[in-house]
Amino acid sequence: MVKEIDDDKINRHFNDRRMGSDVDGEILGSEFKGYTLRITGGNDKQGFTMKQGILVNGRVKILMRNRTTLYRPRRTGERKRKSARGCICGPDLSVIALKVLVKGDAEVAGLTDAPRPRRLGPKRVSSLRQAFALRKKDNPTKYVVRREIKVGEKTRYKSPKVQRLVTDTRLRRKAVAKRDKRLRWKAGIEAHQAYEKILSKYLKEKKAAAKKEAAAARTPAAPAK
């Protein structure tokens, strides 16, 4: 839902408020009476997006790196200085994004008057079991959100892969990995013992050869005839 507001009396209620702060929905109009809204973001008049954590009522240039919003590096370790809008609202904003936290008594057309099913649901095993109160023996793959896709006259359903699901294949692979690790450990010990035997034999032969050379050096040479 998009609501255009040109009244400065309404816009000034958002000035000096930060992202994540809650506002009373009645300041937008009587139809939002009883609603509680939260500021989730926005854009300034030049299109720069608000970024959480920048405590500035304006635009700044910061050095961004990987795992940062508003920036996607093209190479490993790449950093770039880019412009971003601070998280404090001001009169230079053209768009403010709001989220409904508490619903009021009346329905708002285009916002709460029609049910909107969840497009993507949880796909982690623990989240599915917590959301649907499943037991260990229940199959969580039957509770993921499936999307209907039409290809021509045919209709098929697409569902996400359940994450962190312990299956028989996973247990078998884990057992095989554990067995291989144990075999590598035994092979390493046996190779170390074999190396110690070869080294000991080499040192004994070297010591015997040194004693033989020393004995030959102490023996006097026979006189020439």
Characterize the structure shown.
With 225 residues, the protein is of the alpha+beta class. The protein folds into three domains: 8-102, no CATH class; 125-158, no CATH class; 166-216. The protein is built from three helices and seven strands, in the order αβββββαββα. It has helices at 8-11, 125-132, 168-218, and strands spanning 22-24, 36-44, 59-64, 80-85, 93-102, 147-151, 154-158. Strands 1-2-5 form a three-stranded antiparallel beta sheet, with no helix packed on it. Strand 6 and strand 7 (154-158) form a beta hairpin. It is elongated. The termini are far apart.
Give descriptors for this structure.
single chain; alpha+beta; 3 domains; 3-stranded antiparallel β-sheet; 3 helices; 20% strand; elongated
Helix and strand topology:
Layout: H1 8-11, E1 22-24, E2 36-44, E3 59-64, E4 80-85, E5 93-102, H2 125-132, E6 147-151, E7 154-158, H3 168-218
Antiparallel strand pairs: 1-2, 2-5, 3-4, 6-7
Helix content percent band: 25-40%
Note the gap between the termini: 122 Å
Could you tell me the mean pLDDT?
Answer: 92
Which structural category fits the helices and strands?
alpha+beta
Write out the strand line-up for the largest beta sheet, numbering strands in chain order.
Answer: 1-2-5
Q: Compute the number of helices.
A: 3
Tertiary shape: elongated
Listing every helix as H and every strand as E from the N terminus to the C terminus, the arrangement reads: HEEEEEHEEH
Biggest β-sheet strands, sense, barrel: 3 strands, antiparallel
Rg over CA atoms, rounded to whole Å, is 36 Å
> What's the count of strands?
7
Q: How much of the residues is beta strand, in percent?
A: 15-25%
Give start-end ranges of low-pLDDT stretches: none
Q: Give the number of domains.
A: 3
